[in-house]
Amino acid sequence: MADISALDIVVLAGGISHERDISLRSGRRVADGLNSLGHTVSFRDPDASLLGYLAENRPDVIWPALHGASGEDGALRALLEQTGIPFVGSRTDAARLAWSKPTAKTLVARAGGATPASVTLPKETFRELGANSVLATVLAGLGLPLVVKPAQGGSAQGVTIVTTEDELPRAMVDAYTYADVALIERKVEGVEVSVAVIDTGDGPDALPAVEIEPVEGAYTFNARYNAGETRFYVPARLDDSVAAAVAEAATTAHTALGLRHLSRIDLIVDADGVPWFLEANVLPGLTETSIMPQAIAASGRDLGDVYAALARAAIEDSATGL
Q1: 124, containing H or E segment
Q2: Is the backbone peptide bond immediately before 235 cis, with ω within 30 degrees of 0?
Q3: Is the keyword Cell cycle assigned to this protein (predicted)?
Q4: Residues designated as active site
């Protein structure tokens, strides 16, 4: 095994997804943290030269900071597995499960987690059965308000909160812009929280929950990545018993999906203190305004130390076949 006191690390960032710019910002932050500890870091875009570069240089570990399909749907991870080089984050099968929001909801519900009632609609079904009759049936079954989102993807792209019947058709169009399958979910009213989960070898550890309060409207793409558009409370303003339930719900989801090393679990806490699972992110944003860095800081840990510990965990897991 490589000398883990001074690792040769390739940080992957960029890609061709809608979240390329966010990935580049995340990757630079990871690289800065690792560089500050004396590790040798190469910053690479996953382009046509990547696999040849990895085969020739064989770094100790790969640190993907790729958001969207290019880094989270499992395809690139499958290729990384074939190289035999350790990499940080979930393996292919788990990434594919989490990438599909309907699948993730089903698995978390089977593990005992609460998740809002929903309907999953492929674009073809929407067209074949007629938009008007489909939407009328959905409204009769789920009621209002609703959340409409692409069944795959992140950063709130294509997500709409629907409060009136007239808003639903446009929300479907917006969701289908980003994916061929849309998820229509009953909106749970409550406190929106995100929980970063890390595992450096001792089992999944839920960091302090981050409460999200957009200054105006919903927690949109712009609100996520532009400073000043969202208020974050770290830790979330929850009673101790509710905070414990939120942490348990996050680790339950992380485990049910078979995730590895790090994840971000998004939840809504209702008026009764029940945490409702919304979705899981296998590679959370790591920018200056992202949830996970805030949670790491709130836990009293250094960002660079955590990123290096995750790299070491990837090496250990590779050596033991995990």
Answers
A1: helix 123-128
A2: yes
A3: no
A4: 19, 155, 290
